[in-house]
Design the sequence.
């Protein structure tokens, strides 16, 4: 079994951090710091551990934030060279996951020392990531913070450039939601424009994820951006756009599909069947599709199927499953098969009953069938 993610912030790491800080600030009570954290650390999850390390640090560092900031910056180790590596703490200082609670400290205690905090978060992100810590500043001091973020998008360090896009994501997982950007994402579009052809795939993936966040609230805006970016696009930019539009593709957002070359399909009779009328929970069923072209020209097809899962209250919840993308020649008929399994997973609870299945082509449902899910007694 894989090591729980929370164990990245363990008591040994805390002791190593304390030792490094004590070298820069001799009055730092390293043992007292470790002992205070050790009382509750093991019972906490990842974010709670980071919060504990952060707030306990405030009890042992100077109350003058600018003095504390100097100590923390001096405690930082070597800069990461690649998108990520296993570096943590060594004789050169603190790098890697151990920086996370230090960045949280800046977010919590540095809000009245804006320029110092911006400088320190930039330096910290070169050794880890300040994507969570920058968000309170974007929320409370949006315009001032964006001036720095715009500059970071042009930085020579790939981790600083990634901070510009990842830290400004409206709906960053595990991070505080940036409600102002959820409502109006236009202030962050110039950041993404500056980074769309970044030489680092690590940065380009972040740009795609930011756009995917925006697409959840402003689908037409993202479709328009995608259309603009695809003009004379490189292979890397095409890949970025497709990844950015993944939610819209699954939703069958027609403008996005048109932009990507999957306009409304010209089809004759299409058929969708399942191999059995009933499926016992834990087993599999085969889905068969027949698709016939009625066009006089070749078409690009994006074929998905949708399963409408039963919920506890009797309603259903649709889930889109990717099937294939394929050219369809004029007048051609193709047949597809897919095995669909329903078994225990952590992200869904299954309930018995009739499950409708739909065949979706280029965003439009063209055929449907159903099966009944049975739970073993």
Sequence:
């Amino acid at each position: 079994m894989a090591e729980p993610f929370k164990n990245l912030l363990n008591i040994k790491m805390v002791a190593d951090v304390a030792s490094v800080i004590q070298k820069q600030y001799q009055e730092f009570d390293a043992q007292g710091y470790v002992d205070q954290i050790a009382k509750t650390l093991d019972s906490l999850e990842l974010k709670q551990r980071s919060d504990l390390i952060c707030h306990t640090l405030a009890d042992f560092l100077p109350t003058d934030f600018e003095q504390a900031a100097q100590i923390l910056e001096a405690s930082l180790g070597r800069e990461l060279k690649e998108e990520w590596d296993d570096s943590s703490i060594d004789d050169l200082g603190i790098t890697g996951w151990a920086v996370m609670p230090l960045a949280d400290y800046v977010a919590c205690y540095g809000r009245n020392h804006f320029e110092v905090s911006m400088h320190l978060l930039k330096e910290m992100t070169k050794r880890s990531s300040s994507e969570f810590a920058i968000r309170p500043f974007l929320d409370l001091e949006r315009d001032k913070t964006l001036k720095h973020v715009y500059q970071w998008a042009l930085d020579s360090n790939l981790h600083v450039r990634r901070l510009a896009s990842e830290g400004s994501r409206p709906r960053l997982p595990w991070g505080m939601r940036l409600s102002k950007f959820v409502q109006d994402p236009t202030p962050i579009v110039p950041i993404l424009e500056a980074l769309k052809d970044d030489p680092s795939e690590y940065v380009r993936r972040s740009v795609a994820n930011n756009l995917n966040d925006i697409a959840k609230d402003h689908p037409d805006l993202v479709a328009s951006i995608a259309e603009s970016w695809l003009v004379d696009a490189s292979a890397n930019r095409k890949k970025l756009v497709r990844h950015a539009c993944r939610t819209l593709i699954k939703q069958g957002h027609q403008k996005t599909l048109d932009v990507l070359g999957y306009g409304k399909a010209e089809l004759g009779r299409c058929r969708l069947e399942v191999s059995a009328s009933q499926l016992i929970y834990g087993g599999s069923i085969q889905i068969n599709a027949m698709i016939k072209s009625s066009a006089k020209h070749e078409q690009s097809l994006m074929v998905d199927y949708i399963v409408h899962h039963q919920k506890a209250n009797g309603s259903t919840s649709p889930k889109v499953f990717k099937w294939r993308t394929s050219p369809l020649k004029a007048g051609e008929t193709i047949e597809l098969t897919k095995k669909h399994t329903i078994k225990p997973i952590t992200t869904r609870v299954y309930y018995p009953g009739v499950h409708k299945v739909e065949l979706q082509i280029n965003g439009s449902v063209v055929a449907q069938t159903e099966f009944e899910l049975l739970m073993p007694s």
In short: The chain has a mean pLDDT of 95.
